[in-house]
Every structure is written in structure tokens, then in C-alpha cells.
Amino acid sequence: MKILHVHTAYRQSGGEDRVVASERELLGTGGHEVMPFDARNSPRALPAAAQLMLAPWNPVSTSNLVTAARSFAPDLAHIHNTWFALSPGAPRSLRRAGVPVVMTLHNYRLICINANLLREGSPCDLCITGSRWSGVRHRCYHDGVAGSVIATATAMTWATRSTLDSVAAFIALTDFSRNMFVRGGLDPDRIRVLPNFTFDPGQRPTPPSVSDTVLFVGRLSTEKGVETLIQAWESEPRSLRLVVAGDGPLLDRLAARHPGVSFIGRLSASETSRMMLTARAVVYPSLSYENQSMVLLEAMAAGLPVLASDWPTVRETLVGTPAGMLVPPGDREAWANALGQLENDDTVDLAGLAARRRYEAVHTPELGLQRLEALYRKVAGFDFA
Question: Cα–Cα distance between 8 and 80 in angstroms, integer?
Fold first, then answer.
């Protein structure tokens, strides 16, 4: 099968970019012909501002995409992200060119201009329950009015029937996110839940209990809850050590104020995998719904217990996790108490085994390929036999 694989890369490669790269690799090894089409948001302020201004409809990127489609003649196009170098014009133009479109909903951008359903550190659904202009009133896009106006206009362009009907099938990663998109106006019959996959890192050399390293992996920003985590960690003596892998706006301040925590910077995917295979546990203190974090899946694949914020998307992902491993988001006292569970060797080893079983049941590459092929078959009418 010939697949045009469309993505707008972020300024710095993140979890979504890794998902896209992994999916291309998976489809290639599965015998499919994949043509990448990558737009890129400019790292420079003025060009990026110009791209943002064109976000509701970018004629140049849309024309380039259609040219690529006509040259490659794909059986379908799989769009992963259009913000913001691409635009809602991408699926509409592909449909007019006769190419069926599948789109993965990695975040909530279509129904929330900051993509996180988060405002002032708490979940927010004002753009779903009220006006799409709520994000402008609260300056939800990078705390600015102009950017919020453009982001809202783009979301409203996506919300038009002609744009939504150009996508044959949307992929949601969890039942919770599917329900949020339905509340936001997407046709429930067009949304399929296909969980993410991650590659198997291999067998652990030792059980989790052998290690004393508790690992946080992620962007060091407010919505990730890392400040609550560190405060809870330091609220009482620990026999373990906390290692923070990542960078972001809070890095310098946190590293200066908390010398007892190891800040090791951002790791590559392979470095993260190696650390997880020898760590004791992963902590995931997110303050927002997020969607389906690759950190969770990578920890599960490594047979690593996860102590995580108790959000619906996390509960769906960590089915089978032992009691007490899901913690009220942002509750420092609850996190302080929950962290104590990681001192118990039997608890972490049993939780690690449960995490690995869940990975093998839901999130392996083989299962991921089967789910994608079934959806592609339905959308393109393609017979893999």
C-alpha cells in the first residue's frame, strides 16, 4: 500500500515527532511504501510569525502537498499534525485530489487553542461548552491576544463541515479523548480509538527493585507537574534518588533550588530506553489530561512501574496497575505519601510485571500495525491479501 505520511515537525523534536518516525518505520517494515511529507515550523521569530498568520489557510504548503500527492499517487494520506506550517487546507485539498485522508489526533488542538485543555494550571473545557473565542478572552495561546485570535480562527476553520468531512477517519488514542472530540463537534462515526505503540526495548537485566533510581522524563514546564513532584519528594527523607531527564523553561530555576535532585538534561530515545531498563520506577505527575503519553508506554515496555497522576487517559493506559499507584494531580501531600510505596521492593516488582503485561496486550508494534492496516483497509478499500 502507498501511504503519504504528513506531519508538521515541532521546533524541537518531541513525543509526537517520535511517534511519527516510529510509525513510518513500522509501516515500512510491514511492506508498505511510505512517502514522508514534512512541513517545519520556523525556529526564527519573524518567519514563524508569518507562518502563524497563514495558519487558517496556507496556500504554499497546501500546494506543495497536493503536488507531492499527485506525483506519488498514494492509496491514502495519513496526517499527524498541521499546526501551523500546514493548515486545515491540507485535508480539503487532498480530498479534492481524490486521496482519502486519515488523521491522528495527538492533542486537543482542534477543540482547544493551546491543545491541552488546560488553563491556569487546571483542566478547562470552555471552548467546548461555550464559545470558541474563550481562548482569546483568556489569551490561551502563549499568553497573547494576536496568537490566540489566529489559533482560534484556525480551530474554527477546522470546525467547518467542509474541512471535517474531508477526513475519512480520525484516530483518537483513548476513549476519553474520543469523547472530548465528540463533545467538541466531531462526528463520532468518524473517530476510531487506536492506542499508540512503542518498540520493545528488550529484557530487563534485573528487576526494578535492584535499582534506587526514580525517573521523571519530560518537558520541565508547569503543566507537567514537576514542581509538585519535587516538593513532595523533599517533604521527607528518601532512601531513593530522583533523576529528572528533560529540559524546558523551569530547568535552571529547579536545578538551582533543588541540589538534592539529579537534573541530567534531555535524553535521546535510546538513552531514555536504557535508563528505563535499569531504573526502579517512573513518575508522571502531569497537571493536564494530555492524551496518551509515550513516556508511559515506554516505561511499560521496560517493565517499569509508573506512579502517575490519576487522569482518565492515564487510567485507560495503565489498566491493571496496582492500587495506590494513581495519585490525585497536583496534591503534594498525596504525592508525598504515594512516593513512599516506591521504597517497597515487592510493590515495585509486581507493578513492573503488571506494566509489562499491559504493554504486551495492547501496545506492541505488531498490534499497532494490525490496527493501522485494518483502518487503512476500511478507508481506502485496499485488499492486503
Answer: 8
